[in-house]
Every structure is written in C-alpha cells, then in structure tokens.
Amino acid sequence: MSTATTTLSVEQVQQAFDNSTFIAWLGMRVTSLDHDAQTIDVHIPFQNAFERGAGTRQWHGGPLAAIIDTVGDFAVGMLVGRGLPTVNFRVDYLRPAIDTDLRAVARVRRLGKSIGVADVDLFNAQDALVAIGRASYATLPPA
C-alpha cells in the first residue's frame, strides 16, 4: 500500500453516497467506520420501491446486492481515499428481508496494492443475518 494514502471520514463517505444519484436513492447512511478495524456500518431504510412484489414489503435481491457492493466498496475505499471499481462480486441470500430496515457491516479482508477484498454482512432490524457478500475492488491509482 502506498504511503500517500488518504483515508475518508464518516462525513466524506456519506458525501460520496449523497453525490451518487443511485446511492442517494438507496438512502444509505453511514453510522460508523473504524479505520483501524477496517470496518464500516451503514443503515438502509426500507422503501416501497425496493419491493419484490407490490404490497409484499419484501426486499428485492437487486437492491440488496447493490447495498452489499456499495458498502464493501467504501470499506476498502475509506482506506485508500476514494470509491473503487468493482472487480468481482458475489452474494448469498440467507433469508427474506420483509418489512424491515437493514444494517450493512463490511470488513476489509485484504488491502493490497492492486486489489482489495471486503466481506459484507446484511442484517434485518431484529439482527438476523439476511445476506452475505464478498467483493474485490481495484485499488490501483486512477490512470
């Protein structure tokens, strides 16, 4: 990792969220981050637009995947000072998320010169694990 790395604060990550039309639409709010532990915690409120079927109050898998990818990205990105391109991504859906806000907790597993890897746990309001994801992100400086 380069010694010229600049980290991002809670406010800077939130600003990056708010400056993206898509991420802002998701309504994600950074509740905490810890550079030493390499973790970030984000709250996501339920919206009817996220429903799998009208009136079901069940989250569609697409928004869940987008949340996992974004929170993982900024877990690594908060350590290198910017949002990063996703290289690879996977998600496992463990149980339906119905009529609930969500909490995403990401942990950086590797921060390398060219690739960073983060794991993300997605919880419902009762703290039950809804989905897990892992993604890798390009950490090389922009060309």
TrEMBL record:
Pfam (any one): 4HBT
Gene3D superfamilies: Hotdog Thioesterase
InterPro entries on file: ACOT13 (IPR039298), HotDog_dom_sf (IPR029069), PAAI_dom (IPR003736), Thioestr_dom (IPR006683)
Residue ranges annotated for the Thioesterase domain, each copy included: 59-130
Keywords in alphabetical order: Hydrolase
CDD domains: PaaI_thioesterase (cd03443)
UniProt GO molecular function: fatty acyl-CoA hydrolase activity
PANTHER family: ACYL-COENZYME A THIOESTERASE 13, THIOESTERASE SUPERFAMILY MEMBER-RELATED
Similarity annotation: Belongs to the thioesterase PaaI family.
Protein's name according to its UniProt entry: Thioesterase
Organism: Pandoraea horticolens
Lineage of origin: Bacteria, Pseudomonadati, Pseudomonadota, Betaproteobacteria, Burkholderiales
